[in-house]
Amino acid sequence: MGFSNIFARFQKAALLLGFVVIGLFSAGPANAQETVTKTELKTNLSDLSTLYKTEVERLEKRQQQSKELYDDGLISRVEFENGEKALADARAKVEQVTKEIAAASQPTTVIAPDIALGIAAAEAVWSTGNSKIDNLIRYYGKQYGIDPYLIYCTMSQESSFNSGATSPKGAMGLMQLMPGTAARYGVTNPYDVAQSIRGGTRYLKDLLEMFNGRVDLALAGYNAGEGAVMKYGRTIPPYNETRNYVRLILKRYNTRKQTS
Q1: Count of other CB atoms within 10 angstroms of residue 189
Q2: 222-233 average pLDDT score
Q3: What is the reported pLDDT for 115?
Q4: How far is 47 from 14, CA to CA, in rounded Å?
Q5: Whole-angstrom Cα Rg for the chain
Q6: What is the pLDDT of residue 102?
Q7: Most buried by CB count within 10 Å: which residue of 15, 87, 185, 208?
Q8: CA–CA separation, 186 vs 164, rounded Å?
Q9: What phi-psi label fits residue 5: left (phi over 0), alpha (psi between -120 and 50 degrees) or beta?
Q10: What is the C-alpha to C-alpha distance for residues 202 and 200, in angstroms, rounded to an integer?
Q11: Spatial contact of 182 and 164, defined as CB atoms under 8 Å apart
Q12: Catalytic choice (84, 100, 123, 158)
């Protein structure tokens, strides 16, 4: 499925998860429309789940090979444990989207139109599970003009909200800043949650400006570096890791986009 088709489908489903549907209009057409959009949302979430499960299968195969190399003394314990962590994070994402599918399958409550929008906004809240991090995401998102939910989705994919995360390539903290990127944005301690979110948000802002608001290219630049995007003619570089990274984040971002 091409990205243009994904965008078209997910724009219709955005902000639906957890929403309470306005139900005091003509019951027949309203209920029919509600059924269609809820079905579409569940389909889109199922697509996201399939992507995550595919990623788990890929990591399981890689980790099986890593175990053999580790047993033969060909890779270090750190490398092996990093692979174990990546696999655990991928499995956690499958569990999370499974819960969202279950939530989307719950019957909706019919309420009056004048309070529906307020409840919808309250119900569609995302959270990292840490109120301090949530507040910092919203704060820096507002300061730099970046959708907080895009920051949230990027952070989820980068570190699974683990402020102490370090990648095998040396990326650090919640937003997985490389040393050079951290220095560029004045981040002296990439494991400090505020510095990490500020630096990562500023980097996203610069990437979005560089690529004329193209979220897909900004994400590709965040993963592979803006130089790689420029090298391939302002397209997503032909790296499996980068293309998978962009696809996974866009699936989540467009499934349940929320402006905070």
Answers
A1: 12
A2: 96
A3: 36
A4: 15
A5: 20
A6: 78
A7: 208
A8: 19
A9: alpha
A10: 5
A11: no
A12: 158
Closest CA to 154 of 121, 123, 126, 125: 126
Q: Which residue carries 């499934």 as its tokens? A: 255
Cβ–Cβ < 8 Å for 93, 153: no
Which of residues 18 and 83 earns the better pLDDT score? 83
How would residue 41 be classed by pLDDT, with cut points 50, 70 and 90? low
The amino acid at residue 249 is I
Tokens 């391939």 identify what position?
A: 232
Furthest C-alpha separation in the chain: 69
Residue with tokens 């989540």: 252
pLDDT exceeds 50 at position 23: no
Highest mean pLDDT among 64-68, 219-223, 248-252: 219-223
Contact 77, 70 (CB under 8 A): yes
Rounded Cα–Cα distance for residues 71 and 60 (Å): 16
126 within 8 A of 14, measured Cβ to Cβ = no
Contact 257, 227 (CB under 8 A): no
Q: How many CB atoms lie within 10 A of CB 5?
A: 9
Sequence letter at residue 40:
E
| C-alpha–C-alpha distance, residues 205 and 141, integer Å | 9
- CA 13/CA 16 separation, integer angstroms: 6
177 neighbors 199 (Cβ within 8 angstroms): yes
Residues 6+ apart with CB under 8 A from 51: 247, 248, 251
Percent residues over pLDDT 90 in the chain: 47
Percent of the chain that is helix, strand, coil (3-state, to 5): 70, 0, 30
Placement of tokens 């907080």 in the chain: 148
